Amino acid sequence: MSVWLLPAISALGVLLIVVPKPAPRLVNRVGIYLEPVQMPSPAGRDEAGSVRLSKAGLPWTLAEWRVRNVMAAMAGMMLGILVAQGDAFITGPERSTVGLSLTGAFAGVLFLRMWITRREEHRRQQLKEELPLLADAFALQIMAGESVIQAVERLVYQGVGVGPSELACALERYRGGESLTESLERAAVETVQPEARRLYELLATGHHTGGRLARDLMELSRDYRATLERELIAEGGRRAIAVYAPILALMIPVTLVFLVYPALAGLRELAQQ
Asked: What 8-state DSSP symbol labels residue 3?
């Protein structure tokens, strides 16, 4: 009976967290207990966590992030207990319940963080492919007579992708009281793609000082396209090597055998004479 007590309590905890509740939300009620009582975490650490969640495109608060870590640990712990008791279609002698439950909890948290990292890398690559189009769109809107804030609003409302979502966050901060220059500079710092920093900083500088913003945006778009072209050529070369290397590794020895064997056979016949 005691064997199933811990899995039952864990399953009940997961259900209480997953099932939606009316306000106040359960995430907020549980999250406050995960905060240190007398030793609060540094502000820089919390800000770094928020920036990482923003780069991954996850609208989670820090409390929600901590609760999901607990949920992942509990799910991994339950799986470890099932493996230890032989209830996960794995036969064999009885295993250490404590060790496998702790290993499962660690693996659950690790898989959650790996998923977030993978999501961040995908968004980084997607934004890199969007940058030439974003720069062209801003250049056309500026040449049409729109201001920077109008161009940002139009792109946020009509665009879809990682870039418009980051600009939407900057626009929200602008409407919350920040200046547009500060919002764009903050977006340049928190962006998931370092190459996008040039675009956001150029828009912030153009809004603050003016100048030939449309021309600079067109030059930036050409730079983005040249960078993508170089990366595509390099990627094509790497894939070609990955495809042809095994074929060459098989063909060269076989070819040498067919070339050398007749000569060896002829030398053997001459030696026998």
From this structure: G
What average pLDDT is seen over the chain? 76
| Contact (Cβ atoms closer than 8 angstroms) between residue 235 and residue 228 | no
Domain assignment of residue 118, given as a range: 2-124
The answer to whether position 95 is within a domain reads yes
| Tens digit of each residue's pLDDT (9 = 90 or more) over 59-81 | 777 788 788 888 888 888 888 77
CB atoms within 10 A of CB 75: 20
C-alpha distance from residue 161 to each of 123, 128, 165, 265 (Å): 9, 11, 6, 67
Contact 100, 80 (CB under 8 A): yes
Q: Which amino acid is at 35?
A: E
The secondary structure of residue 25, as a DSSP letter, is P
Give the CATH number for residue 135: 1.20.81
Write the CA distances from 154 to 59, 75, 147, integer angstroms: 22, 43, 11
Amino acid symbol at 218: M
